[in-house]
Amino acid sequence: MSAVHGEGAQPHVPVMLAEVLEAMQPGPGCVVVDGTFGAGGYTRAILRAGAEVIAIDRDPNAIAAGQDLVAAEAGRLTLVAGRFSQMDAHVAALGRLSVDAVVLDLGVSSMQLDQAERGFSFRSDGPLDMRMEQAGPSAADVVNHLPQKDLTRVIGLLGEEKRASAVSRAIAERRKERPFARTADLAALVEKVVKRPPRGRQIHPATRTFQALRIYVNGELNEVAEALGAAERVLRPGGRLVVVTFHSLEDRIVKRFFADRSRTRAGGSRHLPEGEVPPATFELIGRGARDPGEAEVEANPRARSARLRAGVRTEAPARDLDLSMLGVPRLAPLGDAGE
Fold this sequence. Notes:
This protein is of the alpha/beta class. Helix content is 39%, strand content 14%. It has 14 helices and nine strands. It has helices at residues 17-24, 41-48, 60-65, 67-73, 87-93, 110-114, 139-145, 148-159, 164-177, 183-194, 207-217, 220-234, 248-262, 294-299, and strands spanning 3-4, 31-34, 52-57, 77-81, 99-105, 108-109, 235-245, 282-284, 307-313. A seven-stranded mixed sheet has the order 4-3-2-5-7-9-8, sandwiched between helices. Residues 1-11 and 115-119 have low confidence and may be disordered.
């Protein structure tokens, strides 16, 4: 899912590529998991550095588009159709016990945004879909069938939309007359409720609602948290985990994970009693998050919200994952949005 977070179509550019490679240190003899293959930007760079890559993507289109690269690399690239939250199982299925590095580039792919028929964007009208795996309940199922109170939580928590109640109420009223089927239809309704700001930098009023639906339909925050746990299990001691995030919801989860997994003494956390600190499973690379350089942001504006966090795996055993501690919100099951 090589990340893009804007409504304008632009060529695919891997974000913070130099910083990712510096933190990951791939080279000959290394096996790297690219958990978010997308258009293959990171994978190509890792292969050029001499490493072998196991690349994962849940989007069948990305898997199909990557087959030429698989053929060209003659055994150095394995492309896996699946979820990065299950990367340890995917790696084990390939006969490996561990890997040397994992990179995750979180966000929606430029390919997905640019294809109107996928329904991720309201830039061009298309079916209200948003399913990365092209299976299961769609965004249309969510807006047409999820109870209004649950829809309010989805839009408010995942979209950080201040007018979530008003948006969900408008959706619930309209769907009584006829169901939503197209992106432009939903965007037009949300725009009537939220309205554009009079001045300053403007994003489309439907941006936050569409973000919320996409994250919910694909279970993205749960996937991110589970992927961090899977990376912890699959990395060898000394292996490196590098994560690039694009919005605060993802970054908060990654920040909490690294903070929890790198703590060496008690104090400063309400989640663990004093004196009950298990051995750290990661040592942080750098202090806090790393931002893209000014030159990259100027050349590629969609990089401006990117943040990179990274750590080196210790010899301590992997731990159980606590989703609530990581800040993953509890929401109504997606099945409640089905027919």
